[in-house]
Amino acid sequence: MSHEMAGIAILMFMFFSVGGVGLYASWPDLKRAIQSRH
């Protein structure tokens, strides 16, 4: 694995972990919005 590949993998991992935490934190609001829409 080259150095830039490792950097891209680390950036992707950080992006997905931050996105997952944000999704987990806003999940109740998302669920409420989906239920109220139907």
Profile the largest sheet: none
Strand composition percent:
under 5%
Number of beta-strand segments:
0
Mean pLDDT: 89
Gross morphology is rod-shaped
Structural class: mainly alpha
Number of helices: 1
- The N- to C-terminal Cα distance equals 48 Å
- What is Rg? 16 Å
- Estimated helix fraction: over 70%
Low-confidence sequence ranges: none
Written as H for each helix and E for each strand, in order along the chain, the element string is: H
Keywords: Membrane, Transmembrane, Transmembrane helix
Transmembrane segments: 6-27
List key phrases describing it.
mainly alpha; membrane; transmembrane; single chain; 38 residues; transmembrane helix; 0% strand; 1 helix; 92% helix
What order do the helices and strands come in, and which of them pair?
Elements: H1 3-37
Brief summary of the model shown:
This protein has 38 residues and is mainly α.
What does this structure look like?
This protein is mainly α and 38 residues long. The protein has 1 helix and no strands. The longest helix is centred in the middle third of the chain and has 35 residues, at 3-37. The radius of gyration is 16 Å and the shape is rod-shaped. The model has no long low-confidence stretch (mean pLDDT 89).
